[in-house]
Amino acid sequence: MFIRKILQFGAGMLLSGILLSSISGCSPTGSSAQAPSPERNSTMVASQQNETIGAPKVTRQVLLQIEKKAALHPEVIVQADDGGFIIAGGIDAIKQGWAAKTDAEGKVLWHYFRDLQEEDKEGLKSQLVARPHFTGAVAMPDGSIFLCGNMPHNFRSDAPTVFLTHLDANGQLLSEKYFIPEKGINKGVKPRFSGCVRWGDGFAVVGETTGPYIQTTKPVASHIGERWYWVLMFDGAGEKRWEKYIPVSLRHNINISQFPHVANSNLMFSAGGDSDTEIFSISETGEIVAKNIIKGGYQFVRPVVSDGILQLSGRRPGRKSTNWPETDSWVVVTLDEKLNEIHSTQEGLENFYGYEFRMPDQSIASIGEKKHKFGQRYTSRVVHVDQMLQNERYVELPHNRRPFGVAGDMAANSTKTPNEFVVVRQLMVVIDGKVPDDIPADFKVGAELDFIQIQ
Questions:
Q1: 448, 62 contact by CB (below 8 A)
Q2: In whole angstroms, how far apart are CA 440 and each of 32, 40, 404, 437?
Q3: At 84, is the pLDDT very low, low, confident or very high (cuts 50, 70, 90)?
Q4: Can you give the pTM of this predicted structure?
Q5: Which CATH architecture has domain 7-454?
Q6: End-to-end alpha-carbon separation of the chain, Å?
Q7: 302-303 and 355-358: which strand pairing?
Q8: pLDDT per residue as tens digits for the range 306-330
Q9: How far apart are CA 43 and CA 396, in angstroms?
Q10: What confidence tier does 52 reach under pLDDT thresholds 50, 70, 90?
């Protein structure tokens, strides 16, 4: 075990405010004038000093807001070929799906709101969580954008609940299609789209679907019927080429990673929980090239530059065994093309967060949130770790600090600029344990873009 040294650096960061203009149906609008930009500070903390490990640094920040003071719930951010960014998710306060495009600097170009139709609203059992939301975005070479999304969980049982939205380069709606799986029709457990990714000259969507309940005297969890991973391949115009149903082998509840990616021309995705993870490699023709089940909770590490290396990042369950160390610390597993484990690296670091990127030098950038040790607040961090998981340096992003509110939902991705990442974080206000109807004037709510450079 190495001895960790802590170095602290003061880092002044300037917040550039970009106000989204008023909401008007589903029409895109331009950005408005910049808001005041109060100064804020952050702290960079480095563990064992190592000149080969660069410290993350926040280079700029952009505040995203809509006219109504409402927290934006980002679920995905991707960079388009023109250098701009597509952000997508939903907004609870106005019960709408939401997407926006910015330029390379974070200036908003347009936004799009996906409302519920009147017939949709009538079919909901409750209006409390009644909003559609986007879980994935694909930026195409022609500038158009595909967004995969889901209707609310409590949507009526006789209607399709997953959809694909196609926008042009200016954020105007081109088309929207609903999908009903051929397998797994269960009125109690809705099919879901978990994410989508550009693939070849088209794109893929990954989701799940569940069959009818099975009558049994066993615990309720066993009532769920047969389950499938649902994979769909589309061409560049959004026409479906094929769809595939892969039986779920895991017995416990699954959570498909929202971040499918392409490696060696194949679609890679993972699903599972803390105890086991199922991983897949699928060809462009829909053939399962490889699959495996790994002990522990993992997801694929996404390469910043395509390098042909397959890795998982996560945690193995601690247990008393010669083969299994009694620890749940961070593990990086290297796989062969058949998804068999050929090497694993495990050290005492505990900085697995949820967005893992492999740098060109094989070091790892980890981005996500960690519960603050003194309370229920979550600290947003960008961590840079060497190949052996022995040395780390990180920047902690401000949280729960007036006038910025509390950081909640977030998404992250690498950019086309070498060694740069972009993080989009929800900014919300919680007073006395709830979101107030009237937000104080000095609180900023919406979302924030943080541009991170690793030295």
A1: yes
A2: 21, 19, 11, 10
A3: very high
A4: 0.81
A5: 7 Propeller (2.130)
A6: 26
A7: parallel
A8: 888 999 988 876 544 444 344 457 7
A9: 6
A10: low
- Strand, helix or coil for residue 30: coil
Measure the CA angle with vertex 344, ends 339 and 345; round to 5°.
145
Judge residue 386's burial from the number of C-beta atoms within 10 Å of its C-beta, 0-12 exposed, 13-18 middle, 19 or more buried: buried
pLDDT score of 190: 77
Six-digit token pair at 115?
């409302």
Rounded Cα distance between 132 and 261, Å, is 24
Q: What is the CA radius of gyration of the chain?
A: 22
3-state secondary structure of 80: coil
**Any idea which residue has 């559609």 for tokens?**
132
Task: Please classify residue 158 by burial: count the beta carbons closer than 10 Å to its beta carbon, then call 0-12 exposed, 13-18 middle and 19+ buried.
Answer: exposed
What 3-state DSSP class applies to 265? coil
How far does CA 44 lie from the centroid of its chain?
Answer: 24
Residue 271's Cβ-count burial label (10 Å; 0-12, 13-18, 19+) is buried
Render 87-119 in DSSP notation, one character per residue: EEEEETTTTEEEEEEE-TTS-EEEEEEEPPPHH
How far, in Å, CA of 433 to CA of 429, rounded? 10
| 143: region left, alpha or beta (phi > 0 left; psi from -120 to 50 alpha) | left
Indicate the pLDDT class of residue 390, thresholds 50, 70 and 90. Answer: confident
Structure token digits, residue 132: 């559609």
What confidence tens digit (pLDDT) does each residue in 157-170 have?
566 789 999 999 99
* DSSP-derived 3-state class of residue 391: coil
Looking at residue 93, its pLDDT comes to 76
Pair of tokens at residue 409: 């939902």
Q: Which residue has the tokens 């347009």?
A: 110
